[in-house]
Amino acid sequence: MKKLILCLLVLLTIHSQRAFSLTRFQDFSFDQKGIVFSIDPRIELYNVMNMLAGIPTITANATAYKQEIFGRFSAYEQHPGLQFFIRCRMKGWGVDNPLFFMLQLDKTLQLQPGIDPGVAKGAGGIDTIKQLAIAVKQFCEDSYFAEFFNAHAPFYRMILQNTQYHFRDFNERTRLEQYYGQQHAGYNIILNLLEGEGNFGPSVQTPEGRQLYAVISTNGSQGDLPSFTPSFSTYDLIYHEFSHSFINYLVHAADVAPTEHLWEPIKQSMAQQAYDNWLTVVQEHLVRAATIRLATQRFGEAIAQSYYHKMEIGRRFIYIDALCNRLQQYEQQRQRYPHFSNFFPHILPCLDSITQQDIARLQALVQQYRQPDVAHIPIPAQVHYDSSMVFIISSHENDETAMAGLKAYVEQYRNMVNSRINIITDNEALKTDLSHCDIMVFGTPHGNTFLRQHMAGMPLQITDSTVLAGNLLHGRHFQVVTTWVNPANPAHTMLIHTAQQAADIRNYFYSAQKEAHNYWIAENLVTIKSGDYRRMMQIWFADE
Question: One matching Pfam family, short form (predicted)?
Fold first, then answer.
């Protein structure tokens, strides 16, 4: 009898150890000044299940990794746990709810108490959520996902090493806590290697306090490695997702009904972005306004306006100006209002004063920011130098010697491509109908009045000490070639040869690299950066 009991105990121990090992994951993370960056097994398991389910939002990057997943897990496409997961998603479970559910599981995939009622309701109720947690864990164990995850340690560590290098100066926990006057138990940035559906900002209540999450999608790849860099868009999503945890609970407790009439003018655009009620729309407006203010602190007013503000207005979050103005009042009175929650009662009333005239003006600004309404911007190599083309040269450069050099360069360039092309000055161009042709503009933004007038709406911006094109480049001798539409007729092209200094606009014809993309930035003809303009949410941005 003793031998039988001993055997049973051994079998139970082995079974228990096996079950534990099937959900035992290595830790892949690093701490960057109080924010933990990680590759999370729950999110990678979620991505595997999405791939097997045929959810069409997986990133186009990480080709080899995706092929490994299909090779390893395709045999489990009919697994009951996966099929239960698919049925929950097919019920119309929202874009972010499945991911929020995954983070409500602990690292052994046990469901933790406190799941958001809205998340549970979307899946069919709390009982369904409990069944789903069991199903997901069973799929994980039966498919030996932990073994797959742990075996990719070199791959994950390389991604984390690259990310840690890119974010070596990142110190945004301090900025967030100082701005809101509030602390949370933990801040976590999860690197989502495969999801292309967007970025998410859940928070989870734990015994130690609230853990904040920003689950961020890759913004490119380096070979087979998904890459994560601190670009303007990355800062935007980090500020945005973390800010939800400082703002949402305040908005949810507020009475937004008195301003619900403001919803109708933007209702269709909001619905297209999955914001289907006024409370959520108000919440999103305030989070985005706070993001602009945080970006202003980090990057300065010019970038905050040309990138962050333009992006949000273009998406038709037209009430953010009123909220940003109110937040500036908060920033100026921090001794009186040390915490964001102290000032919050003064924020939303600013919406009461928005008039129909304001709405009409802001709707027009949306359309302005969405221009040009074209499918693509031609690259320099696609420009045809026929005799109808017009060259426009600056006449207001400060340096007379540089001005003479520029004139000689323009004439030389014209004679190389087509000697019949007409050359006119910037002053003449402003008085001439140029809607019938392609144009080419030469000069600096401060020396060419035509360029100065028409460059303001472009994704690429030039100052005396910087060039903004997806990210910010610092220097005083950048040379730039870029394309845009002819401001008089978007069916035609505007090609621009410019620089910060007129004396640097020379010898561009020696560089073949300037022809291949929408913009080329160089110093002494050495390419610093090149890229294209892409339209996202109807707004044109430069590649990051």
Answer: DUF4932
Q: Which amino acid is at 20?
A: F
CB-based contact 473:526 (threshold 8 Å) = no
The pTM of the full predicted model, rounded to 2 decimals, is: 0.84
Q: Is the peptide bond before 372 cis (omega within 30 degrees of 0)?
A: yes
For residue 106, the SS3 value is coil
| 485 in Cβ contact with 372 (< 8 Å) | yes
**Residue 348 CA: distances (Å) to CA of 110, 274, 341:** 40, 22, 12
Integer Cα distance of 95 and 423 in angstroms: 54
Cα Rg, the chain, nearest whole Å? 28
For residue 141, report the phi and psi dihedrals to the nearest 5 degrees. Answer: -70, -45
Residue 245 has pLDDT above 50, yes or no: yes
What size, in residues, is the chain? 544
Domain with CATH 3.30.379 in the chain: 380-542
User: What CATH class is the domain 380-542?
Assistant: alpha beta
What is the distance between the alpha carbons of residues 183 and 167, in angstroms, rounded to a whole number?
A: 22
CA-closest candidate to residue 214, choices 233, 223, 225: 233
At position 229, the amino acid (one-letter code) is: T
Contact by Cβ (8 Å): 323, 292? no
CB 286 within 8 A of CB 347: yes
Could you read off the pLDDT of 464-516 as tens digits, one per residue? 999 999 889 999 999 999 999 999 999 999 999 999 999 999 999 899 999 99
Q: Is 34 left (phi over 0), alpha (psi -120 to 50) or beta?
A: left
Tokens of 133: 């947690």
343-383 confidence digits (pLDDT tens): 999 999 999 999 999 999 999 999 999 999 999 999 999 99
Contact between 502 and 509 under an 8 Å Cβ cutoff? The reply is no
3-state SS string for 204-236? EEECCEEEEEEEEECCCEECCEECCCCCHHHHH
Query: What is the SS3 assignment for 57?
Result: coil
Lowest-pLDDT choice from 231-235, 246-250, 485-489: 231-235
Nearest to 455 by CA among 508, 396, 519, 538: 519
How far apart are the C-alpha atoms of 318 and 399, rounded to whole Å? Answer: 43
202 touches 103 (CB < 8 A): yes
Using the CB atoms, write b or e for 313-327: b if 16+ within 10 Å.
bbbbbbbbbbbbebb
Q: For the ranges 84-98, 194-208, 323-337, 460-474, which has the lowest average pLDDT?
A: 194-208
The model's pLDDT over 162-186, given as tens digits with 9 standing for 90+, comes to 999 999 999 999 999 999 999 999 9
Contacts of 371 (CB under 8 A, 6+ apart): 457, 490
Contact 527, 521 (CB under 8 A): yes
Side by side, the strands of the sheet bearing 390-393 are: 422-425, 390-393, 439-442, 489-499, 479-486, 519-523, 526-531
Residue 531: strand, helix, or coil: strand
pLDDT for res 3: 56
